[in-house]
Structure formats: structure tokens, C-alpha cells
Design a protein that fits this description.
72% of the residues lie in helices and 4% in strands. It has 223 residues and is mainly alpha-helical. Keywords: DNA-binding, Transcription, Transcription regulation.
Amino acid sequence: MAVTDEAIEKIKGMIVSGALRPGDRLPKESELAAELGLSRNSLREAVRALSLIRILDVRQGDGTYVTSLDPQLLLEALSFVVDFHRDDTVLEFLAVRRILEPAATAMAASRISEQQLDALTAQLDALGGAPSVEELVGCDLEFHRGIVQSSGNSVLCSLLDGLSGPTTRARIWRGLTQEDAVSRTLHEHRAILSALRDRDAEAAQSWATVHIASVEQWLRSTL
């Protein structure tokens, strides 16, 4: 593994230094191995590892390329890793979300368009007053994703997408066991939307914090 790690670091160095840029094709395996002073086997293992985390794109019959290195692509690996969380770490993920998502919601207050706000309102209207838990959780994910995307920060959006896995389960458990969870969630969503329409970043941030904290508080009491 030490040899493979060395190969990974050398390829990383080429990308970080700009010797290889997004979209560039890597030299042939034999040429690159000789240039970096690596065995072809260690280079092959490094390429395989870097392709798993979306740094490299191996195209059969065409060659190996550096990906776009867009945050959304690179942070897909976070979502994969997060899926392996233990139940007792859900609170820690929620705590991180409580720090990041209200900030993103505040940023969206000055950026989100009236059309986007109308679309989010229509989404809540279509959900109705008595949705199933599954419908509510699905709407909740899309609702917050739409707002965070309006923050204009693609890194923040990708991070929060990656963190949504464990919190989804928490929201489902809450919906199944807490009678007022549905009505409270819908009320909090409406309050966030109202603050965004008023371009009130502070109120939007506060309501987003309340929304996440209520799930966190409930889950803390059940674990």
C-alpha cells in the first residue's frame, strides 16, 4: 500500500501543480510510470483508487482523463462514506448540518428568485396538509436542496447533499413516532419561505436553525 500511496501522491502533485488540468488525458501508462519512477502495477492501483473518488475518469479503449474536478463531483465520495455511519453518530451529522444549512439559507435570502420561491411554494401546496411520512421526507429534501442551491455556493450545496443521508433516517423516525411532526415541519417550511420572500436573512437563518434543531432535539431524547 505504501507504494500505491506514493503513486497517488505523485499523480495528485501533477494535478495540484497544474501539470495535469481538468479534462486532460494522462500520458500512456508506460510513459507515465517511467516519468514518475513507478511500477506499472502501482500506477494502475493509484489510477483505480483516484477514479473511485472521481479525480480520474478511466474510459475503456480511450484512456484516462482528469475529471472536471467540480465540487459536486468530488464530494460524491462524502455521500458514499456518510452512508456507513453508525446510528450513534447521526446527532453529530445533524450538528454539522445545523451549522451549515442555516448559513446557506441566509445567503439564499438575497439571491433566490421570485420564480424559485413560487416553485417552492407550489411544491408545499401540492404536498397538502396530510402527506405520508415518505412524501414529507422527499419534499423536505428537495425543499432544502432548492434553497441551498440558491445560496450560490456549490461547495456548500454539495457538502449538505452529502450530509443528508443519515438525517433522512432521523426525519423518518420522527415522522413515524411524533404526532405533530408533519404539521410542525410544514409550518417551519412556510416560515422559512416567508422570511426568504421578505429578504430577511436573519429570520430565514433562525427558522432554518429551529427546523433542524427540532429534529435533533427529538432524536437526542430517543437515543
